[in-house]
TrEMBL record:
GO terms for molecular function: oxidoreductase activity. Pfam families: Nitroreductase. Residues 23-159 form the Nitroreductase domain. It is an enzyme of class 1 (oxidoreductase). Its EC number is 1.-.-.-. It comes from the Bacteria. This is Putative NADH dehydrogenase/NAD(P)H nitroreductase SAMN02745977_00351. Keywords: Flavoprotein, FMN, NAD, NADP, Oxidoreductase. The lineage of its organism: Bacteria, Pseudomonadati, Pseudomonadota, Betaproteobacteria, Burkholderiales. PANTHER family: MALONIC SEMIALDEHYDE REDUCTASE RUTE-RELATED. InterPro entries: Nitroreductase, Nitroreductase-like, Nitroreductase_HadB/RutE, RutE-like.
Length: 197
């Protein structure tokens, strides 16, 4: 066993005991905690350090109400009452920042001249970064309720009218209300999901 292995309590907090939050307590989430989460999550690897994820924090009821017309019915109440809802988005022109994030200037031109490659890279790495963000939030003591039940085109029109950012998924953040937690669903076994070649 590696000496660098996280202890059992840390593994439980990140994975084994962590649950998808379907409801939250009234305990607020401090703005500085959102920055701490981002500062951890941004250290997760992305291809060519492209960092295409963008995070829009909806921290007021008025901001979250702007989402309501675009949410599936089952996601409306829990989003309105969550302390924070994060729009995890991707920057379609992420490569414009690569003069700061990548050591080779040609990286910017690679994506600027290939729209399909840029779109696939943004989607893949933006999703990875969203997952890093969830783990960072759990590591700092928050609970997460990720959602894909929404009208992405509507959210993009409402929040990103210039078209540069594209909503990927939504993430409610706060402290879980365990009374609203569903029983855990089964996971596939190793031999159902994995191959060792």
């Amino acid at each position: 066993m590696s000496s660098n292995r996280l202890n059992d309590a840390a593994l439980a907090q990140l994975f084994l005991d962590a649950r998808t939050a379907n409801g939250f307590t009234d305990e607020p989430v401090a703005p500085e905690l959102l920055q701490q989460i981002y500062d951890l999550a941004k250290m997760g690897p992305t291809s060519m350090n492209c960092q295409p994820a963008r995070f829009v924090f909806l921290t007021t009821p008025e901001a979250r109400e702007r989402l309501l017309p675009y949410l599936m019915e089952g996601n409306k109440a829990k989003t309105l009452h969550a302390p924070v809802c994060v729009i995890v988005a991707t920057d379609t022109r992420f490569h414009e920042h690569m003069d700061k994030t990548w050591h080779d200037p040609s990286g910017q031109q690679l994506f600027a001249g290939n729209e399909a490659l840029a779109a696939a890279t943004a989607q893949r790495n933006g999703t990875l970064s969203g997952a890093y963000f969830m783990l960072a939030a759990r590591a700092l003591g928050l609970d997460c309720g990720p959602m894909s039940g929404f009208d992405a085109a509507g959210v993009n029109r409402e929040f990103f009218p210039d078209g540069r950012f594209q909503a990927n998924f939504l993430l409610n953040l706060g402290h879980i209300d365990s009374s609203k937690t569903f029983p855990r669903n089964p996971r596939l076994a190793f031999d159902e999901a994995c191959q060792v070649l």
